[in-house]
Every structure is written in C-alpha cells, then in structure tokens.
Amino acid sequence: MDVYLGIDVGSVSTKAALLDRDGAIIDAVYLRTQGRPIAAIQEALIKVKKGKTIDIIGVGTTGSARELAAVIVGADVVKNEITAHAVAAMHLIPDVKTVIEIGGQDSKLIIIRSGVVADFAMNTVCAAGTGSFLDQQAARLNIPIEDFGKEALASTAPVRVAGRCAVFAESDMIHKQQSGHQLGDILNGLCQALVRNYLTNIGKGKCISSPVVFQGGVAANQAMKRSFEEALGCSVLVPEYFQVMGAIGAGLLAKETAGKTKTGFRGFELTAADYRTGSFECQDCANGCEVVETKLEENVLARWGDRCGKWSKKPGR
C-alpha cells in the first residue's frame, strides 16, 4: 500500500502518522521525546510500521526539531507548526475558523478564513497553560495527569487562581491549598485561569469565531475544554486525533508535493542506524558560529547554524 508519512517532533512529544493516497488516516503514534529526538523518531517509525506492508511515497516533517527529523528520515517537505496544524484542522473539520493548539511547551492560536490562514499568534516567554506546566502541577499534587481533568470537572465551586505567570500560578495554588480549598476546586480554578491567560495574551486582538477546534496534548483535559467553552460562549470541538494533528498536517503537506520528484525517504532501515549529532565552533571569522552536524556512522548528512553558509551548503565528510 502506498502511504504518506508525517512526523512531528517537539520538545515534549514525538508523533508520526500514516495517510493513504486519499488522505485518510491509517495509523498514528504518540510518544514522549524524553530529550532524545533521534531515538524517539526511530521508535515512532518502528511503532507506526509494525505489522504493515507499506511503501512510503512522501514524507513531511514539522515541529521544533523538524530540520533534524528531515535529515534523519529524508523528508520531502519541511514546514512550520502553524502550517501543519492548520492543514490538519481544515482536512478534518473543513469549515473550521479558529484553531486552539496547546502542546508541551508552547501555545498557538490560528485564525482561518475561507480555507486560508489569515492570522496567528504564539506564546513567547511564559509556559503557563502548556502541557509541561500541567504535568508539573499534577506531579506536585500527586495525581496522575490523566485524572487532572476528571478531578476538575467534579468541582462545583472553583477558586480564582492567578494564571498570568507559571510561578505566580503555582504560588497561588499552594496558598489556596493551605487555606483549605478542595483539590478539585483548585484544579478547576487553575484551568479557568489558564484559559483567561491564553485569551488575554495569545488571543488579544484576535477575532475568535466558531467553529473552534482544540488540539494538542492539552486537549485531552476535558476541564480545559469546558473552560474554553465557558469563556468563549460557544462549543469547542476536539478532533479524534487531537494529539497528532501536527504529524497529520505534515503527511498531508507531503501528499501535496508528492509525484514531482522521487521521495527521499531513507527507508525503515534507518530505525537501526547509528545517527549522531554534535557541534563545533567555526573560527574562520569573528562571528564564531556554532555549527551543528548530524552524522550517519562517520558520514556527515547535514550541517546548519553557520551564517555564511560555508558549512551548511557543503556538508562534506
């Protein structure tokens, strides 16, 4: 079977998706990056290939490590997360107008009009409301992250928590605990605070219209979904593949470019290959660029990070 492969490598999670020639989703995997993006890519490919007889005819990569992923797998198209998430949302919900995407360490808002990205915004410095922040709070409160939303949904009297800053939010939660408030009420209040923070900062000046799609790992938290619905005054849709929408978008983008040239996919044999990444400082001028290089065995596959292009244009050996 001919399929397209999409890979989304982020700081917290790595996702892969397989799509058929019509763009239908065949399979998808989600796993933690754990600071080892190359190993995570190899593991994701092993999982997505398992038990299937498939021929990859196009590969797309996205995410914060999209360039590295492209070198490892031999990608045909490399796109940013805004484009990938927007394409996936429009594919699954054709009339979508607003995409709320909250991942492990960043948050995005994408405004879509007439099938085109009209505007977008991303968080800058503060990680309040992202998946890693919620994971941290769940661990501190000694509850599984899977139970976070359920506990918050059971609340009937949420407390007001400061959500403009991750540090202040945590301090305020501790204060509320010391005051005797119930755990569920604190968690519910935190979800509401994080939604206020998102809409005040990322959504500032943006025209958020329905249909609204909520995707990214945090969309698994039903209390966050409810808080967005209460704040926006409309229903919020969570697609079936909310966790892997970036990978789906990358696969769809590969589908758009397929056929123009033969795919550069290195084959599933790459899952057993010995990839290594290192860096060195170029001393040829005053810039002192840090050049990052990726090797397969002893062969240099790619270099980047130099301003003049001396190293990146000709990787060499």
Describe this structure in words.
The protein is α/β, with parallel strands linked by helices and 317 residues long. The chain folds into 3 domains: 2-85 and 246-272, Nucleotidyltransferase, domain 5 (2-Layer Sandwich), CATH 3.30.420; 94-238, ATPase, nucleotide binding domain (Nucleotidyltransferase, domain 5); 275-313, no CATH class. 34% of the residues lie in helices and 25% in strands. Strand 6 and strand 7 (107-113) form a beta hairpin. The mean pLDDT is 88.
Strand content: 15-25%
Taken together, the total number of domains comes to 3
The CATH architecture of the largest domain is: 2-Layer Sandwich
Number of strands: 13
The first-level CATH class of the largest domain is given as Alpha Beta
Q: Could you give me the name of the CATH homologous superfamily of the largest domain?
A: ATPase, nucleotide binding domain
Return Rg in Å. 21 Å
Provide mean pLDDT, rounded: 88
**Series of secondary-structure elements, N-terminal to C-terminal:** EEEHEHEHEEEHHHHEHEHEEEH
Largest sheet: 5 strands, mixed
Taking pLDDT < 50 over at least 5 consecutive residues as the criterion, the unreliable ranges are none
Q: For the terminal residues, how far apart are their CA atoms?
A: 36 Å
